[in-house]
Amino acid sequence: MKMGESIQKRRKGGASSPVARKPGGWKSRKMADGWLKYASRLAGLAVVGLGGGYLVATRVFFPVPPPPVNLVEVPSLEGLTLGDAGSRLTDAGLALGPVEGLRHPALDSGVVVGQGPLGGQLLTRGGEVRITVSLGPQRQAVPDVMRLVGDRALRVLEATGFEVTVDSADSDLLAGSVVSVDPSAGTMLRVPAAVRVALSRGPAMLPMPYLLGMDGRQATDSLAVLGFAVPAIDTVFRFGRDQGLVVAQNPAADSLVARGSSVRLTVGRPGG
Q1: In this structure, is residue 66 part of a structural domain?
Q2: Fewest CB within 10 A of the end CB: N or C in the chain?
Q3: At which of 80, 113, 134 does a domain end?
Q4: Which of 134, 161, 177 is at the close of a domain?
Q5: Dihedral of CA 107/110/111/114: which sign?
Q6: Residue 157 domain-assigned?
């Protein structure tokens, strides 16, 4: 055999010889594929088993009750009168249930202000609907506070439910005394309601006129016109021209004196 043929046979023999493999590799892959198929079958059986158990439980042991078929929609009743609300419920196949009342500051008596169940909800035909109707606004008589003074009168009015506006006015009453109330005491009003109260600023203060040297009768008339009271006139002996004239006055001229205050005059008289 020639050397070239020998080398060629060796090359061919090396190319055709089988590749070396690890022992057991083919068997391992085959076993893994088998386990995957087995696990898939178990998972499928589990899903089928759970589904079947759910169907059995819901259809045999705990069946779902059939949906109610005798339901009607509750109409909205707010703003209706009690009579109209009852008619609306009767037309819908429902009944008027317990009726409650409450005071409402804006709605007249007998108007529906609430209901249960609410409008739009479902209720079994023939079921009752509870409603709440307005009893109308609360009414209150204006209390008599003419004998009270200042803050006390205001507290009484506010505690009764009135909103008080305060004015002031000249009056012979003491400062802070109630001069007038509008509306007057005893008037029935919806509360809260506005009440106007005038409080006295006290008697008006007037300057005392200068009366010295004036005829006594003329001085008395002048004081009366200005609103002063003259309880008595004192006399004192005087010579000459001071007889019959005012020689002293109290309070003094230009003093600020409340209207209606008393003034004492002293008039000169002749001797004897």
Answers
A1: no
A2: C
A3: 134
A4: 134
A5: positive
A6: yes
129 SS3 class: strand
Alpha helices, DSSP H, located in the chain: 3-16, 25-56, 82-91, 150-159, 216-226
Q: Which domain holds residue 231?
A: 205-269
Cα–Cα–Cα angle for 233, 236, 237, nearest 5°?
145
Structure confidence by residue, pLDDT tens digits, 197-241: 999 988 778 899 999 999 988 999 999 888 888 777 898 988 777
> What number of other Cβ atoms are within 10 A of residue 246's Cβ?
21
Output phi, psi for 221, to 5 deg: -65, -40
pTM beyond 0.70: the answer is: no
Q: How many CB atoms neighbour CB 230 within 10 A? A: 15
Give the whole-angstrom CA distance, residue 19 versus residue 27.
Answer: 17
As a whole-number percent, the residues of the chain with pLDDT over 70 amount to: 75
**Helix, strand and coil in the chain, % to nearest 5:** 30, 30, 40
> What string of DSSP letters covers 187-202?
-EEESSEEEEEEEE--
CATH number for the domain spanning 85: value is: 3.30.10.20
Please answer whether residues 118 and 74 qualify as being in contact, where contact means their C-beta atoms are separated by less than 8 angstroms.
yes
Q: Is 5 domain-assigned?
A: no
DSSP three-state, residue 232: coil
In eight-state DSSP terms, residue 250 is E
Q: Tokens standing for 234?
A: 């004192």
Which residues in 158-190 are b (16+ Cβ under 10 Å) and which e?
eebebebeeeeeebebeebbbbebeeeeeeebe
Whether 263 and 223 have beta carbons less than 8 Å apart is answered as: yes
Same domain, 124 and 162: no
Please give the Cα distance from 229 to 251 (Å, whole number).
12
Token representation of residue 16: 């055709």
User: Is the residue at 38 inside a domain?
Assistant: no
Dist CA 236 CA 159 (whole Å): 60
